[in-house]
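Table S2 (text version). Query chain:
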Amino acid sequence: MVPGAKLHVNGTAGDRVTVRQSVSIANETYTYSRSGTLTNGSTTIRVAYPGEYTLGNQTVNVTDTAVREGNQITLRHP
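Corresponding structure-token output:
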């Protein structure tokens, strides 16, 4: 088990945000997504897989190290 990288999202309070990426495991590909609601203008979404995530029209690369060490990456929701 890994701590997971923390995607800290800032934006308008009350907005619901979802980060997504395609993940391949054992020759199967599926969409891995996690959501959160911006309470007081921010939320933190923990992700367990490295790779490129999308949030709206933004992308962010989450490294293996970020997932293993529980590092935080900050994004802005439009």
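Notes on Table S2: Residues 64-69 form the longest helix (6 residues). The mean pLDDT is 94.
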